[in-house]
Task: inverse folding
């Protein structure tokens, strides 16, 4: 009986139950909200790297669905326990996942992401995840953009009213019936920039409409 209710089995049960519940709750929340989309003037190209803050990711799958014609996306998700639930939610949205982060499985993640880009698939990445610091820019996003010379597109979701969790990323949960303002940045390239220059411009773009 103790084995049945072990920590590992409880985690597996949650990973099976939570994702579909969260998926439908996200769709219901999105339905109740008014949406405003601020789109780039330049045409979006495929493949691209979509950068978003970890604390804003809850409602951003809808932004990608809204702007993408093909909706071929692989999201880089950490190997952390919560990452398993997030990965399953991404799958319910029709996206693929690449498991790992800049600290764990970084080489494998880089190789898989390069293969996805080569196949014409977009990549979604939270440059301050999975453990922060909040609003920092890890090298993974910069390395990918430089190696494949693909554009970076920033995504932000700015709710008119929301709850902020007491987590490292100040995770944002929009309140029902609020207005969701989606900001899709102008695509930009960093192949001619140093890592430090690239880090500064990515951070500046993402902070422009951060919650």
Result:
């Amino acid at each position: 009986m103790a084995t049945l209710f072990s920590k590992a089995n409880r985690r597996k049960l949650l990973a099976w139950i939570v994702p579909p519940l969260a998926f439908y709750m996200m769709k219901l929340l999105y339905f109740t909200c008014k949406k405003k989309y601020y789109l780039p003037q330049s045409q979006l190209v495929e493949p691209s790297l979509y950068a978003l803050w970890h604390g804003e990711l809850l409602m951003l799958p809808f932004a990608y669905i809204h702007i993408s014609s093909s909706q071929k996306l692989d999201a880089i998700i950490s190997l952390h326990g919560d990452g398993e639930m997030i990965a399953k939610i991404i799958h319910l949205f029709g996206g693929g996942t690449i498991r790992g982060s800049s600290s764990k499985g970084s080489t494998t993640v880089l190789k898989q992401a390069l293969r996805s880009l080569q196949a014409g698939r977009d990549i979604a990445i939270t440059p301050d995840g999975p453990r922060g610091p909040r609003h920092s820019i890890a090298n993974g996003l910069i390395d990918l953009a430089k190696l494949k010379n693909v554009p970076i597109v920033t995504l932000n979701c700015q709710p008119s009213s929301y709850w902020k969790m007491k987590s490292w990323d100040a995770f944002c949960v929009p309140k029902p019936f609020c207005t969701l303002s989606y900001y899709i940045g102008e695509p930009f390239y960093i192949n001619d920039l140093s890592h430090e220059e690239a880090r500064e411009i990515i951070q500046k773009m993402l902070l422009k409409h951060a919650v």
